[in-house]
Amino acid sequence: MKKILALVLCLALVAALFVGCSDNKPETGKNTEAGNKAATTIKVGLICIGDENDQGYTYNFIRGKDAATEALKAKGINVEWVVKWNIPEGDACEDANRELAAAGCKVIFNNSFGFEDYMLKVAPDYPNIQFVSCTNQASWGDSLKNTHNAFANIYEGRYLAGVVAGMKLQQLINDGTITAEQAVIGYVGAFPFAEVKSGYTAYFLGARSVCPSVTMKVQFVNNWSDATAESNAASALCDAGCKLISQHADNSTPATMAQSKGAFFTSYNNDMISVAPEACLVGTRIDWSVYFTEAIEAVANGKEFPQDWSKGLKDGAVVLTALNDKLVAPGTKEKLAEVEAGLKDGSIQVFDTKTFTVGGKELTQAFALDTDGDFVPDKEEAVFDGAFHESYFQSAPYFAIDIDGITTLN
Predict the structure, then answer these.
(1) Is 51 helix (H, G, I), strand (E, B) or coil?
(2) Where do the domains of the chain lie, and which CATH numbers do they carry?
(3) Residue 234's CB: how many other CB atoms inside 10 A?
């Protein structure tokens, strides 16, 4: 009996040792890149000017966040996100950055243009935390090593969406539905800033490359996110004779208004066919997962990442949403493939100076960066090799030129 009891105790001890060894093994399997090292967990902050219900700007960031989470998980990095919703561009943004830093976030993304000044008040107090201002421009040139800017070459996507719009307008002209002079695009713009001007100019040039008679009217709402003002602006543009509406503002209300007025539409930040199926042709957006993945992976692995970041179509950072096949002009898909290939290999330049004029003259000199981050003539000139080179000297857009063919209404 004693021998049996001793044997049982011995077996129990061996089993316990095996269990203990198993508990101390590093995590393996689908959560790791190589399958033989423990997954890393990192806490990441995200400060948003809105929430995902806008179905536009902030929704696009959340889509990027979710896609990056999955991509990083496959690399053995688990992300614990802490998100601050509906933060205004003011002192509340400073508070949000401090709260996320105190919560242990190793990198904090600020998603709105007006957040940067408040983020920069906080960053010096937390030198071991990386602070990112998306769509902005001051951080890359400051003296702080833990501040960053990020944007994408969205002007490439705008140009492509403009091609879709222009082909539709040219179809209407060819069918006799409208005259060449009636090929007018209405554009709902947030602010008369370079980011917005760059976008609508690229869009216009894309449209005019396939519809030579097109013109554009721009109505600013002086707010990044005001659903009612955006709707009212779209309505006014339609009443002013615009046959197609596009936007650089955060909500989907311009799409629904365009549909109610019988105009066509192209979207920004999201595929809006679901909210305006009889109007929306296509959309373009930044895929923020590309940047989120790169930046978070670098921080998780203790590596540096660029202080100023911008990528475009060829890197998957700028994408088009699905075409509305029942509305777009015949041949649109094939033309898009041709133009996209040209943008990727550089044979098509969005701001080719032969394709537009300023005050009736070709643009030969624009503005570029000085050492303080401002743009002045004759220093690192942005116009060279026959084109204005957007997002070349910094990620944030700096094309703020009013070209012929575009009229701003306010």
Answers:
(1) coil
(2) 40-151+290-298 (3.40.50.2300), 154-286+313-357+397-408 (3.40.50.2300)
(3) 31
